[in-house]
Amino acid sequence: MTTIDVVLGDITTENVDAIVTAANESLLGGGGVDGAIHRAAGRRLAEAGGKIGPCPPGEAMATPAFDLDPPVRHVIHTVGPVWEGGRYGEAGVLASCYRRCLAVADELGAGSVAFPAIATGVYGFPPEQAARIAVTTLRSTPTEVSRIRLIAFDAETLDLLRTALAA
User: Fold this and answer.
1) Fewer CB atoms inside 10 A, N or C side of the chain?
2) Of 16, 34, 38, 6, whose CA–CA distance to 113 is shortest?
3) Where would I find the Macro domain in this sequence (predicted)?
C-alpha cells in the first residue's frame, strides 16, 4: 500500500529514491523548483536532460541524480501544462504528469518519490485545483512506489495539499 505524506520543505534534501522536477520541455533547467534541483544536482543534470529531451507536457523522463545526496538516485522530469483558463485540457495533462512519474518510478524500481506542486509556479495552474488533481491522481494510480512525499514550498501550498489529502 502506498502512503502519501505532505510536508513543507526543500525537495532537494528529501530522503527518497527519486525526486520529481517540474521541468520545461528542453529539460535543460529553469526557474523555481526546477532551478533549485538543477543547482543541487550540478551541471551534469542539464547535460543529461539535453540528451533525452525534449519532453512533451504530460510526459516524464528520468536521469541520474548526479550530485544530489543519497539515497536520491534519480530525477524524474515532467512537464506540466501552462494554464490557459482550463479550456485546453490542462487538468488532464497535469494528471498525466503524476501518472507518468509513477510509471517511470516503477520502471526505475524506486520505492519512494518526492513530488513538488507541478505547474503551480510560472505555468500558472490554480494551486487549489492542482492540489486536488495531484492527490486524486496519486491515490488512484496503481504503482509499486510505497512512499510518496508531496513537498510544499510555502504554507499556502502546504495547507492546500493537506486539505486535498484529508478529503
Assistant:
1) N
2) 16
3) 1-167
**Catalytic residue flag (residue 106):** no
C-alpha cell at 135: 492527490
Task: Indicate the SS3 state at residue 98.
Answer: helix
Residues in a beta bridge with 75: 19, 63
What is the rounded CA–CA span in Å between residue 67 and residue 45?
Answer: 9
The pLDDT tens digits of the residues spanning 39-53 come to 999 999 999 999 999
CATH assignment at residue 44: 3.40.220.10
Q: Which domain holds residue 129?
A: 3-166
Look at the chain and report how many structural domains it folds into: 1
Residue from 5, 10, 17, 34 carrying the catalytic annotation:
34
Amino acid identity of residue 12, one-letter, is T
Q: How far apart are CA 119 and CA 129, in angstroms?
A: 11
